[in-house]
Amino acid sequence: MLVSKIIDVKAPLTKDEAAEIAELQNRSAEPDEDCPELSDEEIIFYDYLQKKYKTRHITKEIIISEMAHLAKQASTHGLKESA
């Protein structure tokens, strides 16, 4: 679950904020429903996109553009999409 909050960075942390940060520092990053584990193929694909577009932030627009490009390449080579 994604939670956002506006924080005045100049103000000192509250006790609750400091406790939350301390708790998060000790928690390991694990896949969940919102952010599932990537397959080896997905990792390779995202690495390729990061290098091609020179960004660490891969947007859905980049993915859609790349998938359209790959589909066009496949159709010019006589390949069909698999269901």
List keywords for this structure.
single chain, 83 residues, mainly alpha, 3 helices, 51% helix
Description:
- The model has no long low-confidence stretch (mean pLDDT 87).
- The protein is mainly alpha-helical and 83 residues long.
- The longest helix has 17 residues.
- The two termini are 31 Å apart.
- The chain is elongated.
- The chain has one domain.
- It contains three helices and no strands.
The residue fraction in helices comes out at 40-55%
Provide mean pLDDT, rounded. Answer: 87
Report the total helices. 3
Q: Biggest sheet, open or closed, and with what strands and sense?
A: none
What structural class do helix, strand and pairing data support?
mainly alpha
For the secondary structure, the number of strands is: 0
Span of the ends, CA to CA? 31 Å
- Strand content range: under 5%
The total tally of domains equals: 1
The low-confidence runs, each spanning 5 or more residues with pLDDT under 50, are: none
How do the helices and strands follow one another from N- to C-terminus?
Answer: HHH
Shape from CA axes? elongated
Using the CA coordinates, give the radius of gyration: 20 Å
Summarize this structure briefly.
This protein is mainly α.
List the helices and strands and how they pair.
Blueprint: H1 15-25, H2 40-53, H3 60-76
